[in-house]
Amino acid sequence: MRMIRQLAAAAAMTLTALPAWAAELVMVEQAGCEWCARWDEEIAPIYPKTAEGKHAPLRRVDLRDLPGDLQVSRRVMFTPTFLVVEDGKEQARLEGYPGEDFFWPLLADLLTAHTGFVDNTHTQGGS
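Above: the chain sequence. Below: its structure as C-alpha cells.
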C-alpha cells in the first residue's frame, strides 16, 4: 500500500510540473465582420490541424465582451485582431486579416518571436 501511495504522489508531482498550454491565439471578432468571415472560410477549418494551431490553440472572443482573464497591451479596435497570448497576457498581435498567403508567415513569425515556436513549414519571404 505504501508503494502505491508513493507512486501516486510521484505521478501527481509529475503532472503538476507539466505546463498548461504555453500559448494560445486569441481571435477578437464581432458579428458582421467581413474579414472575420473570410478568415473563417480560408483558415478556420485547417487551423487546428497545423503546427501553429497545435502550438497555439485558437480561442475566439467578442470585441465587446473581452474576458477578464485576458490582459491586452492596448485596446483592441479592429476585427479581426489576433493576439498571441501566454499565461493570459498578450505577447504580440496581428491586426486585421491580410489573406491566407500573408497570414501564415506573419503568424509563424509572431509565434517564433514570442513563444518559442519552431517554424518548419515557412521560410522568410514566403512558403
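The CA atoms of residues 38 and 99 lie 8 Å apart.
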